[in-house]
Amino acid sequence: MDPKMTELMAKKIKGATLEYGKGLKVVANCGRWDNIGKVFYDPKKISRWILIDCSNLSKENFDYFSKKFVENARKMQLNIEEPIKMIFDKNSQSDLKKFIIEKIKTIENEKKGNVEFVMIINNKKDSQNYNILKEIGDIECGLITQCIDNSAIIKWNNKTKQNEFNRNIDLLCSNICLKVNCKLGGTNFKISTQDQNYCQYLKEFFESDTMIFGIDVNHPAPVKQQKENSSNKEEEKEYDSIAAVVGSVDKNFCIYPASILRQKKKGKRGLELVYHLNHPIYELLKEYKEKNNDKLPSKLIFFRDGISDGQFSKVSQHELNEIRKACSNIQQGYTPSISYIVVQKRHQTRFFPANFSDQAEPGKNENVPPGTIVDRVIVTPDKFDYFICSHLGIQGTSKPCHYYLLYDENNFDSNKLILLSFYLCHLYARSTTSVSYPAPTYYADLCAERGRKYNQKHTNQPITSTDYETDRYDNNIRNEVTIESALFKIHPNLKDKMFYI
What we know:
The chain is 26% helix and 25% strand. It has helices spanning 59-75, 96-111, 128-141, 169-183, 196-206, 278-291, 312-330, 414-424, 439-451; strands spanning 11-12, 17-19, 25-27, 45-46, 49-53, 79-80, 84-87, 117-122, 144-149, 154-157, 162-165, 190-191, 210-218, 223-224, 237-247, 258-266, 299-305, 337-344, 372-374, 384-389, 401-408, 463-470, 478-487. The strands form five sheets. Strands 1, 13, 14, 15, 16, 17, 18, 19, 20, 21, 22 and 23 form a twelve-stranded mixed β-sheet that branches. A four-stranded parallel β-sheet has the order 7-5-8-9, with helices on both faces.
């Protein structure tokens, strides 16, 4: 074994040019930018909203946070009215869910209008409040919700040895506004149409009927259920996974409604593939059609997270069949061109610049700069794959993402696919940085995590199928397994919103 690392030539792409409101453009130099002096590209409005303190803030700090949030929102042209402020005392009012729903009904009766947004300030130790708020907002009432930990508002000062109001409150409020505007259906920023790479390589995707999807599956630790008459304990495991699919419905690839699927399987290992994928894909295609004058996309591009090399063939073949099934279900004879790309983060490949001048931040760390591309020497000889380091490594060594194009009907060349993958990393709406992998896969990951918070009773009628899986120890043995899937019943008010962000 050669102890010397492999040396190779990498490519470097400059960051995307982003456009905010009023035509203001910013280049993502070194993978980061800021919101100072900028307004949202498409800001939304909040007429009626509630701010609830569940963390025993002082009245002075509660009022000051409310004031600073509204002030910063208006700076970014998020048109927001003053909140209806409330305090929840868990000592005298034990049921937060009942408290919120009763207050919403009272306000809607008095003000003769719907509450659009609920924000709570919470303690970390009361983490159940987060689950309660999300279930109320996402499923029962159809409200945009936001939860803030009070440790972000009140900070411990080691010099004075006491708690103080966060000195960076403007930055905190600005970051919260990124999430809130997006949840309301707005667009914070987009790829500029004057970007050089956009004009040369990506224009055809942004200006045609293209829909981009992100898919991810969230697995819990396996649960063992003891059967009275069973001797094989491995068979007692029940795997309850949450699959999330998001899909773009706008021309800028910034707005991604979601569909969440709970899938349950008994067997010897978890289910990585989304077995009944046709159902969430159908829901999202229907949403695209409603948003685009009854027109369906001609190109579908899928970024799939969480598949290992050994699962490529089985998962991609099954999910591609499910995608085609969804297409034929929504419209007879509908056959869009499909591309299926796997995004891997769990690998051991790392890049280090050979020259000091090539470092992302010379003298600070030894990471490669965002936009570093490797598509030769260390890639597979029989597949279309490439590495992109799209984020700025602040601490530790940057881990690049490994992309595999497993199926392609859109005739991607390497330049177009690499640029599209890299530019999508700039469109993660809740951050002013280029993130480590494309925004749709990031969103799918967040959405699957959100699905874990919901009560299982909030699902549609389950779909049950029987399949076979190969025995772990003997490939000649195939065991029958039952897979049960059910879509979560997200409130109709939020079907076209990024409520999960």
